[in-house]
UniProtKB/TrEMBL annotation:
Similarity remark: Belongs to the class-III pyridoxal-phosphate-dependent aminotransferase family.
Name of this chain's protein: Probable N-succinyldiaminopimelate aminotransferase DapC
Residue stretches making up the Aminotransferase class I/classII large domain: 25-384
Task of the protein: Involved in the lysine biosynthetic pathways. It catalyzes the transfer of an amino group from L-glutamate to N-succinyl-2-l-amino-6-oxoheptanedioate (N-succinyl-2-l-amino-6-ketopimelate) in a PLP-dependent reaction, yielding as products N-succinyl-l-2,6-diaminoheptanedioate (N-succinyl-diaminopimelate) and 2-oxoglutarate.
PANTHER family, per database record: FI04487P (PTHR43807:SF20)
Cofactor(s) listed: pyridoxal 5'-phosphate
InterPro entries: Aminotransferase_I/II_large, Kynurenine-oxoglutarate_AT, PyrdxlP-dep_Trfase, PyrdxlP-dep_Trfase_major, PyrdxlP-dep_Trfase_small
Superkingdom of the organism of origin: Bacteria
An individual GO BP term: amino acid biosynthetic process
Pathway(s) served: Amino-acid biosynthesis; L-lysine biosynthesis via DAP pathway; LL-2,6-diaminopimelate from (S)-tetrahydrodipicolinate (succinylase route): step 2/3
Record GO terms (molecular function): kynurenine-oxoglutarate transaminase activity; pyridoxal phosphate binding; succinyldiaminopimelate transaminase activity
Location(s), subcellular: Cytoplasm
Amino acid sequence: LNRRLAEFGTTIFAEMSALAVRTGAINLGQGFPDTDGPEEVREAAVRALRDGRGNQYPPGPGIPELRTAVAAHQERFYGHLGVSCDPDTEVLVTAGATEAIAASLLALLEPGDEVIALEPYYDSYAACIAMAGGTRVPVTLRPDPESGSYALDLDELRDAVTDRTRLILLNTPHNPTGTVLTRDALAEVARLACERELLVITDEVYEHLVFEGEHLPLASFPGMRERTVTIGSAGKTFSFTGWKVGWVTATPELVGAVRSAKQFLTYVSAGPFQYAVAEALALPDSYYTGLRDDLRAKRDILATGLTDAGFQVFRPSGTYFITTDIRPLGFDDGFAFCRTLPERAGVVAIPNAVFYDHQDQGAPFVRFAFCKQEKTLLEAVTRLQRL
Ligand code: PMP
Ligand code: GLN
């Protein structure tokens, strides 16, 4: 294994899900729903397979039906904010958001370029920046026990920009903290990007999982259309994480660049699922609000249960994750806590330290996923209250 990758080892999600299988513990670690998405969307995939649609290499940028559906989705949800994209030149279908992140970084970075990422960050960011030869520059989101959430210090962000900064890798709603960046914070990111001529890759895979307030795409801010690569995922929006269908929207120039990398990573993304996701994107608004309301109720169950169990809970405004502080329970090392939690309580969680360069900053925090059936969450909470 080369030096660029050696420091990353095995992803924490694989490690913790294997631990859950081995111990039979409830898996609130890796973020995947324990019920599949809509039946009619599954049927659409079956139909596509059976009818021979997408069983041979689909077009490189994605099938036209899906690109059109992505453009229509952007228009439906963000048209009032001025967002639009041309399905032929401004949409690229990828193998999940994971490939979109990798291809964007590989396409846009020169070796030695600096990339600012909000810490804690989703684990593939660091590895992909490294594979692209970039240097990551973390800007730490700080927990604020008063407000019960995490916040971005805009001065710190501004100070992190140097002459070598090429881009900001943003994520809102934010995994693992559940923070939804405010309009003011996004406006400031946009101002900074324009001033310093930076690109922004914005990972908005949890765009429909916002429980308070609304999701504001960074691309809708003044001056950002030209410099933003926006990433979405059917895994999150339709609860089919195994299908690995994601997409990038950006200007023709940026989409073209990302496609240059994507063509040599996977060439194209799996065909039949693209037909199904095209149908899913056209589901009525009630689907999207239903998903959000369902997860909001689950957030409340888990947040209340964890609070009652003695955790300090950072109540998420978005995503399907809750970050907690374990110090009130008498622990301060999230790694040790998570490695023994299956044995002690029959529950698996993720130590947030894996999402940090400054591991000490993340040490006492642990993430729980709530994209699970209500009865599973209630059982997990009962077990944790016996800790
Ligand atoms: N970005 C973030 C912030 C995520 O949480 C995830 C899902 N784990 C991904 C990207 C990857 O998405 P996908 O499964 O579509 O590759
Ligand atoms: N995005 C999910 C999480 O953060 C799962 C990621 C993965 O398994 N790669 O837990």
